[in-house]
Every structure is written in C-alpha cells, then in structure tokens.
Amino acid sequence: MNAGQLSIADVERLLSDPSKDARAAVAVKVARQFANVELAPRERELAHEILGFLVHDVAISVREALARCIDDNPGAPRDVVLKLARDIDQVAIPVLERSPVLTDEDLVGLVYYGSPAKQCAIAGRPDVAAPVSEAIAHRGDRSAVLRLVHNSGAVINEAAATILVKRYADDADVSVPLVQRGELPALLVERLIAMVSEQLREYLVERHEIDHRVAATLEEQTRERTTTDAIARMSEADMRALVAQLSENGRLTATLILRAACAGEFRFVEAAFAQLTAVPDERIWRLIHDVGALGFRAVYARAGMPEALYPAFRRVLDIYQAVRSSDGTLDLELFRFHVLAGLKETFEEVDATDLDSMIDKLARLAVVPGQRRQQVA
User: Fold this and answer.
1) Mean pLDDT, to the nearest integer, of 38-46?
2) How far is CA 258 from CA 64, 81, 309, 324, in A?
3) Residue 259 — very low, low, confident or very high, per pLDDT cuts 50/70/90?
4) N-to-C CA span, the chain
5) What pTM was estimated for this model as a whole?
6) Which of 169, 175, 233, 173 is nearest to 201 (CA)?
C-alpha cells in the first residue's frame, strides 16, 4: 500500500491517539484521497465519513489542515466544504479563496453573513460571477471591495458597478480602478465617470467649503482625465458610442478632445470632430491629416471649438505627424514629451510641469459661451 493512502491503521490511530497532531495528519491523508479517482466506492464512503468527523474537531489546527488540503479539490464532499467555509476565518479562508465546490448561491450567502476577511477571500477568487460581485457591492467591507475591483477574474456588471459608485463616490481607490475595468460597457463607463466627478464636486463643496465654481472646475478636470484614461482600453465600437453619448450630454468639450490628442488617441479626436461637424469619417480624416493646415482649420471652426485653443491643437497635430513612424505606430512617451515641450513654447505664459496640468490651465482660455456648432454638408 502506498504510504500516502489511508489504511486501517490510520483509522485506529484516529480513534486511539488523542493528540491533535495525529488527527491533523490523518485529516491530511484522508483529504488527499479525494484527489484519487481510483478509490473504490466503499473507500470513498469511508473517507467521507472520516472527513465528516474531523470537520467538527475541537482543534483549530485539525480543521485548518483539512481546509488546506481540500481547498482546490473539485471532488471534495460539499457538506464538508460548506462546514469549513462557515468556520472561523483562519479555517474558512483557504476554501473560500479557491474551492470549486462552492456555488454562486453559497458564496452570496457567505458574503452577506460572513466577516470582512471572508468577504475579502471571496472577492479574490480566480473567478467571481456577477451575482457574487453584486453581493460584495451591496454588503462587502471596503477591503473586499478593493480586492474585487482589482480582480481581473471578477465579473462586475452594471448593477454592481452602480452600487459601488454610490457607496464609494469619494473614494478614488475604489472608483478609479472600477471605471478602468475593460469589461464595462463604454456608455456605462461614461455615466460612472460623470457620477463620480459630480459627487466629488458635492463632497468638495460640503466637506471642504470650496467655492462652487472651483469645485465645478475640479469636477470637470477629474471627469475628463478619467475619460481619457478609459478611451485607450475601448474597442472602436465602444469609443464611437462614447463619443455620441458625450456629444448628446454636452460633454464632448474642446479640453477633453485636446486631452485625447495629447494622449495620442487620434481615433477619438477624429470621431469627435466627425460627430461635431457631421462630416463622414473618410473626409474628416483627410481634412485633419492630409490637406495641410487649412483642412483642419475649417473643421475646427465648424465644430465650434474655442479659437483660443486652436494653437494648442495645431501644435499637437504637427507633432503627431512628425513623431509618428512610417508604419503608423506612435511612441507615446516620446510623443507626450514633445507635446509638453511644444505647448510650453506655444504658450510661454503658462507654467506647467506635466500635460494634465498644462491642459487644466489652458482650459481657462477655452471658455467661449454661445458659439454655434455649424454643420458641414
């Protein structure tokens, strides 16, 4: 008989040896039997009975050893796994983090009635289904929420995302990675960004007594920076849907388009100008990139963009054409370096150490109310 297999001597030892170390050793050996697909039905039944006995052991170390040995075993008895999952944290966490035996329904219940440590363990599972994510969004401790939003294996649907934004609107550690998640639809991302930034403004006004106008400016800057970060991870279809929604909501601003240009996201720039001017995609590309300065000048004016920011757009576009390689690829780090240097040269009166702060300061030049957006035939 293999030394790792359960024997009659092990059963006798379990009954006769009162030490917890002996019981823990037997627990490990029995638990490992369930990984052996060659066990006869009677052997599996006996092992199950012993596990059912050991899972109630008064010694924490015995139950802990048992949990560690069956934490990732798909053949482990469900009743034993559930008992361990409902045990104290140090026993439960291994099975909560890994056991494939636990169903989504089991995990939802354990989130609602479990400790923060248990919630955190569930949030870090390799795969977290949408119903479990919703439960964590509703009832999870902040530590569990943080682990969830950083877990690429977690499915966070619209319901869960909306709940999380409401609960943690002023907590950037939660809201920022949430809106950066790749699986969220573009239109939801934009709504979440707007919600987060609006609640940030309310927080600044109410808690810190910041002037409404200053808070509104900070809100817009936060929204635009976060939106620009999200654009890079979007598909073409999602990006275009985002452009349409931003335009409909009056948030397709000159400074947002400039931020996207400075980030090298020219597909967004082209889609934005096409949206604002109703010019077909092919023609807008030629007007921006192919026919010299006059083409873009016409598009810019007809889009209703502020005249004060035209030099910034022109400089960024020229740098894009100069830096982009012959195969169309763009070294983003090099591009952004030259863009910042170019904008500093163009706007000598503006003092900024990075692109975001440069655009924040240039935004003051962009306030030109009442400009009509003309349509190009």
Assistant:
1) 61
2) 57, 55, 9, 18
3) very high
4) 86
5) 0.57
6) 169
- What pLDDT sits at residue 38? 58
pLDDT at residue 32 in the model: 66
The rounded distance, in Å, linking the Cα atoms of 168 and 194 is 14
Q: Which amino acid is at 228?
A: T
**Residue 25 CB contacts under 8 Å (≥ 6 apart), including other chains:** none
Report the pLDDT averaged over residues 93-120: 96
Tokens standing for 125? 């599972």
Place of tokens 């560690």: 68
Q: Is the pLDDT of residue 19 over 90?
A: no
Retrieve residue 8's tokens.
Answer: 């009659």
pLDDT of residue 256: 93
